[in-house]
Design a protein that fits this description.
This protein is mainly alpha-helical and 228 residues long. It is built from 13 helices and no strands. The chain starts with a helix and ends with a helix.
C-alpha cells in the first residue's frame, strides 16, 4: 500500500468510526475555548471540563476576568497544574483583549500567538474549533499516531504538523485532527496499546513497529502460558 492509499484508508476509517465528532473541551464561544485550551496544557480534558464551570461562573468574558486577581484565578485553576503561569496568562491576555480588541478574541494566528501563554497549538485549536478556519493542531496523540502510521518521522510536533497538512486535504483538517485524537485515546494509546484493536496501525503502520509489538505480544503470551 503506497502512501496515498494509506492516507485514504486513514481518512475513510476515521470517518466510519467518528461520523459525528465531539469537541473535547466544553465552551460556549471563542473566549471560553481559548481559556479552556490554555488550561489543558499538561492537564487532561476531563479535568479541564471539571474546572472551567467553576471559573466561568465567576468570569466567562475578559471584562469579568480582569476584575478577579491573579491569585483568585490561580486558586480556582490549581487542579489543572501550572497554575501560577496559567493564571498570569489568563489575566494578562484578558487585559490585552479589552485594550486591543474590544474584548473579542482576534481571528488570526499572529494575534493569538502574541497573547500571553498562547502558543501555536493553542492558537490553532481556537482558529479551528472557535472560528472554523482550517488548522491542524498537533497534540501528543496526533504526534504519536502520525509516526505509528508511517506518515511522519516523529522528529517533532512542528514536522508532524507540516506532514499532516501536506498529506491530508485542507477541507478535512478540522475534522481529522479531532478524529485522530479520539482514535488515539480509544484504540492507540501510549500505554496499554493493543495492536489487535488498533485496526489503522495494523493496516498501514510502520512494519518495524508492528513486528516489535507482535514479538512483545508473543513473549507476554508465552510468559502467561508458562506461569499456569
Amino acid at each position: 500500500m503506497n502512501k496515498e492509499a494509506r492516507v485514504q484508508f486513514v481518512i475513510d476509517k476515521l470517518k466510519e468510526l467518528y461520523p459525528t465528532i465531539p469537541v473535547p473541551l466544553d465552551h460556549k464561544d471563542p473566549y471560553t475555548l481559548l481559556i479552556a485550551v490554555l488550561l489543558s496544557a499538561q492537564c487532561t480534558d476531563v479535568r479541564v471540563n471539571q474546572i472551567t464551570p467553576l471559573l466561568f461562573a465567576k468570569a466567562d468574558n475578559p471584562y469579568d476576568m480582569v476584575k478577579m486577581s491573579i491569585e483568585e484565578i490561580k486558586e480556582i485553576i490549581r487542579p489543572c497544574g501550572l497554575s501560577p503561569m496559567k493564571s498570569k496568562g489568563i489575566h494578562g491576555l484578558s487585559e490585552i483583549l479589552i485594550e486591543k480588541y474590544n474584548g473579542e478574541v482576534p481571528e488570526s494566528f499572529e494575534a493569538l500567538e502574541a497573547l500571553p501563554a498562547v502558543g501555536h497549538k493553542t492558537a490553532s485549536v481556537v482558529m479551528s474549533q472557535g472560528f472554523g478556519v482550517p488548522a491542524f493542531p498537533v497534540d501528543t496523540h496526533i504526534h504519536r499516531l502520525m509516526y505509528r502510521w508511517n506518515l511522519s518521522n516523529g522528529k517533532n510536533v512542528a514536522q508532524t504538523e507540516k506532514d499532516a497538512k501536506r498529506l491530508f486535504p485542507r477541507d478535512l483538517w478540522n475534522d481529522l485532527h479531532l478524529q485522530i485524537i479520539w482514535y488515539g485515546r480509544e484504540y492507540s494509546p501510549a500505554r496499554g496499546w493493543n495492536l489487535e484493536k488498533d485496526i489503522i496501525t495494523k493496516t498501514v503502520g510502520k512494519k518495524s513497529l508492528i513486528e516489535e509489538m507482535e514479538k512483545a505480544s508473543t513473549v507476554v503470551k508465552k510468559s502467561k502460558a508458562q506461569s499456569k
